[in-house]
Amino acid sequence: MEQLIDKDYKKLLNKYTALNNDNEQKKKAGVHDYSIMNALLKKTDEVNLHSNFIYSMINPKSSHYCGTIFLELFLESINESNFINLSNARVHKEKGKVDLLIEDGEKVIIIENKLRAVDQQHQISRYIQYVYDKYIDKNTTINDKIHVVYLSEYKKTPSKEKKSTIGFDELNHHSKELVWQGNNINLCNGSNLSLPNGTRLRYNRVQHSVQLLKWVFLAKDWLSQNKPNNISQGLKYAFDEYRLILKRLDTKKPWRNLMSLDQYTLDIKDEEEQEKMYVFMCEANKKLNDFIAKRLDESLNKLFPISDRNKFSKFEMFTKEKLLNWLNKKGTKKKYQDVCFEIVFNENKDKKFVFALGIDNIAYAILDKNVTNDWWDIKTNRNNLQLGIGKNLFDVINDLENIHKQLTSI
User: Of 128, 164, 369, 385, whose CB is crowded by the most CB atoms within 10 A?
Assistant: First the structure.
């Protein structure tokens, strides 16, 4: 792999600058990744986020005042159109412990919203028992009265270990029906499930992010065509928020609007130019720890001269070499951890500054001069310095400069 020459570096740095400028323009234009839903709730929160949002939109009695349209589009998106009579449709949340239950007085859709939570003992069979007892006319056939929707991102079937569909044939990835085989099944909640012989219920496995994204786009499209902007804008924002959540659930695809350096490099069509960018990233990565060590040591020496430093307690004396070993995790932990120095400002005062490296963390603080025992005031860690996140290298340098000003003014 060839080394880059000066003109290559300048060219690649110009590209990187252009990438950053483009991302800044996107930020200013409002093309960002912020989601208030995700700020308040975890993206995998099945009940408080997903079930609540879906319920609030598909419930015809909700305060969006759009009637059954979002329910109709939802059922279309999960391949359940024309089953429920929309004019009589009612939507329930957590009724009989079912995540979402849609019924019209004769027919029922059971929706199990399963993202990360584990299946519970006899879960699907318990839901069927509840619906059968509460909603189904026992004088009619049951086969086209109950549909079960398993809304999951990755799981195709409920848990075998928890016997979630006890009484029915074991499901596989291709199953489209729950076929009743049992007779008077005792469920874990103390109830009894007994269905007519020959009962076959539709089992509809729905991929969460894919089908719900379809629903979001259908709903936004309907709002654009049927509602004035001043009425629909709030609902559009709500669906946009949920779209961001769904995109983040799909871990196989990048959800960020702002382009990363790796994606920028992948988009370079000229293979020779792409290789140069690859070499640039490799060399930058190799030299990163050297830069961090030199830049931090330079700042420490400027603010807190080596001649004024003392070893603190049982810690090893801090040096640039030990800082570099700490960044590279070089040698045994004792070679790079528990490295520290202290410096007293004005012998007549009772304050001193202490800087230390732990196993993974950097700590620094202003302490009372007479403190001699161990201390720990973590400010940042190795990962933050190397990835430029959290309190990064230049944040630490800024802290040190402010501390120096504070101490010299005592």
Answer: 128
CA 187 to chain centre: 36
Does 354 lie in the same domain as 263?
no
| Residue recorded with tokens 């598909």 | 58
57 found inside a domain: yes
3-state secondary structure of 67: coil
- pLDDT, tens only, 292-324: 999 999 999 998 888 888 766 667 788 888 888
**Do 261 and 306 fall into the same domain?**
no
Residue 35 lies in a domain: no
Same domain, 301 and 185: no
Question: Radius of gyration of the chain from Cα atoms?
Answer: 31
- Domain assignment of residue 61, yes or no: yes
Q: Is the pLDDT of residue 91 over 80?
A: yes
345-357 as b/e: b if 16+ CB within 10 A = beeeeeebbbbbb
β-strand pairing of 146-152 with 351-357 = unpaired
Residue 102: what pLDDT?
97
Cross-strand pairs, 193 = 185
Cβ atoms of residues 269 and 367 within 8 Å: no
Average the pLDDT over each of 7-11, 52-56, 70-74, 341-345 and give the range with the smallest value.
7-11
Coil, helix or strand at residue 304? coil
- For residue 260, give its domain range: 6-30+256-267
Domain count, the chain: 3
126, 138 Cβ separation under 8 angstroms = no
**20 and 51 part of one domain:** no
Strand order of the β-sheet with 146-152 is 90-95, 98-103, 108-114, 146-152, 200-207, 177-179
Whether 54 and 190 share a structural domain: yes
Q: Are residues 55 and 195 in the same domain?
A: yes
Longest dimension (CA), the chain: 96
In this structure, the chain runs to a length of 410
| C-beta of residue 212 within 8 angstroms of C-beta of residue 223 | no
Q: Strand (E) positions, 61-159?
A: 90-95, 98-103, 108-114, 146-152
Q: Is residue 241 situated within a structural domain?
A: no
Same domain, 185 and 305: no
Higher-scoring residue by pLDDT: 269, 171: 171
Residues 158 and 68 in one domain: yes
Tokens of 221: 């499209």
